[in-house]
Specification:
With 182 residues, the protein is mainly alpha-helical. Among the domains are: 57 residues, no CATH class; 66 residues, no CATH class. It contains 13 helices and no strands. Helix 8 crosses helix 10. It is flat and about 70 Å long.
């Protein structure tokens, strides 16, 4: 502002119309921003789409999430669900861990598609995050027939060389599982 003398001159120099900026209508909240409207809207959402992530992503329902944040400060979406007489635990989307077969199928799919198996690339997709997380869970972490732990063990179990894939290696302190005797 010191360079231009006044904010109006700075806006003109930037190519903006100062009168359009000064005379614009102030922001006003849309109608339907009461607690009763929020409760009615939440109850109209299908049961399997009431979790907070689904509401935030949905183009028309994200306004309900925003309204819940304004009305209920702490634990906004959970509080809004309770106000609508819904159990927040029932509406949470619970992800199931991938089975070892699903992890191996995903690794084969990525390799067949010519995609990288490095964790930085795997974690970019939701299916990749699920498989990576499951491979590193204690139930399968040391259960691969490999000297490696977690995702590295799963990649080797799928028949690919961990070094060629450029994956940082974690070794297991557990003894690898022996194949079943025939």
């Amino acid at each position: 502002m010191i360079l231009f003398g006044h904010w109006k001159y700075a806006l003109e120099k930037a190519g903006r119309d100062p009168s359009a900026i000064y005379l614009r209508q102030p922001f006003s909240r849309s109608k339907g921003s009461t607690l009763e409207d929020l409760i009615a809207a939440i109850q109209s959402i299908p049961k399997n789409e009431r979790n907070s992530r689904a509401v935030q992503v949905h183009s028309e329902r994200r306004k309900y999430y925003s309204l819940a944040q304004r009305i209920f400060r702490h634990d906004s979406w959970e509080s809004a669900l309770r106000a609508a007489n819904l159990d927040p635990d029932e509406t949470r989307k619970k992800t199931r861990l991938c089975s070892p077969d699903e992890i191996l199928q995903y690794i084969h799919y990525r390799k067949k598609a010519g995609l990288s198996l490095a964790p930085k690339d795997i974690l970019k997709s939701s299916k990749g995050r699920r498989c990576y997380k499951a491979a590193n869970k204690p139930i399968w972490r040391d259960s691969w027939m490999s000297i490696y732990v977690g995702w590295c063990g799963a990649v080797e179990e799928a028949g690919y060389d961990v070094d060629e894939e450029g994956i940082a290696i974690m070794y297991s302190s557990a003894k690898p599982r022996l194949p079943a005797a025939i």
